[in-house]
ATP-dependent zinc metalloprotease FtsH
Amino acid sequence: MKKIKNKFIIIPILTSILSLCMLLFMNYSNSSVPYKSYISFQKDVSKKIVSTVYMTDSSQIRVKLKNGSIYDTDNPRTPNAKEVLLNDGISVSEQYTVNNRQAYPTAILIISIMTAVFMALKFSNKSSKKIVSLDSLDASAIEDSNCNFKSVAGNEEAKESVQDIVDFLKNPKKYASYGARMPKGILLFGEPGTGKTLLARAIAGEAEVPFYAVSGSDFVQVYVGVGASRIRQLFKKAKSNKSGKAVIFIDEIDAIGKKRDGSGSTGGSDERDQTLNALLTEMSGFNEKEGIVIIAATNRLDMLDPALLRPGRFDRHIEVTLPDVSSREKIISLHLKNKPVDNIDVHEWAQKTSYFSGAKIESLINEAAILACKEDSTYIENKHIDKAFSIVLTGYEKKDRDYIKDIDKRITAYHEVGHALVSSKVLPNEKISKITIIPSTKGAGGYTLSIPEDKLYQNKDYLRKRIMVLLGGRAAEEVIFGADYVTTGAYNDLQHSTNIAFKMVTQYGMGNTLGLLNMRELSDLNINQNEIIKECKCLTDSIYNDVKNILIENRHCLKATVQLLMEKETLFSNDLKNLFN
Ligand code: ADP
Ligand code: MG
Ligand code: ZN
């Protein structure tokens, strides 16, 4: 609508240009009137061939002869000039007819310019209003059933965790009839480029509901209150669509939901608070039956304000991880689909692209397609991906993990398998659900996810075994690579194990130095801390030796598992069960 109106400004501009052309043309034809001296004019007068003289105030007057020709001559400016001419039988006109002819285009020109200026002012008014306007947020619904779970390769766990949301969006009444409360907010977190936005769109596409996407940074405005109002507007818009169901996606939610630091608030953070509060109010304002789900995404879960994560808000947290080998293979195949490819070993490329995010794989394939196109090659071939690979690698900063050398991967693998193997030997009842060498927010190099048994009490033996599992990573490094080549990767493990050992000796009454005494209660006394540290060290040392022995005994199993982990990058409990028994 507004665009059509915008076009009308063309009309006054056109008319003004036309009238300007006319004026110029007239002036040109004006100036082509010949000039004759006053003397020759007087001769013409005496010859009685002059028909009309056009008198004006300007320096020249125009003369029309009886034969129709026109010329200009100097204005004598004598007071009786007119009388003289009239006496000679020459008609005298005091109106400059040529000027008369110019009056029309001049008027049109002036009117057109005024209209154009007026219209331009009105538009600029409108568009400047748009920036300030509280209710114009560009969150138009996208209904894109082309984007569904098929467009997301890999990420199986994440897809599984949102399956019920999709069901709910398809049929909210069914869930309501069971009295089931759906999570209102889902938080997707994970490294950039892992496909969080994609997954959110896929959820909407899969459920066939409109998708409203905004970014947290859109709400960070100069004017206080604008962000909050935009939030309200967004929800209103989503609720008022015809199906009443919607997915609202807030990307980069950390921009509005950053942890509030206690230090005095500045203007900017005031604004953010208002926006955040508006979001929380809106979220509690609609009920679960309505079929609206809010999905937020962030790269950093730990940066978020805990208020956002409470039940009834974003209470389901789904990690979107970097893809492992098999997922990468799927992503590569997906992006190669519908492209002319020849002889590309997808499996091999999946191996080579460890630590690549989905977005990076996408750009790798795209780069290869561009190269193939540049060469006018019929197909995208291996060599194109090869070239693209180095482009993509150098295109990103060095600190990126793509350059992690094989040896680093190997160390991580030994470290993680060390944890898992020790765990399976000393705590066979604890299920190890997953080990991976793909970094995640849970661990820098990789991580081992084990599900501890439920226990009311933790006995001394159990605590010892916990320390054993924690030391398993470092011990594996030492057993395989030698004491001089252990890494900093065990930093976190050692923190935990030290904590447990210290508590055993000083708080749980499981040590010798203090016996059953609790160190905290004795804090006023001057007790010998060295003794306590010595005992903790002895305890840990002896546990460490046991751990190393376990690993040495199971060296073959350790190596075989590492071999497989290097290949697959992620191992699940099934793989491990076979390997460890
Ligand atoms: P994020 O929001 O996590 O930063 P995006 O969803 O914006 O990541 O991903 C960017 C692009 O990377 C997507 O548009 C898609 O082309 C590609 N991509 C990422 N992950 C996947 C995946 N699992 N399957 C297919 N493509 C993916
Ligand atoms: Mg994104
Ligand atoms: Zn570890």
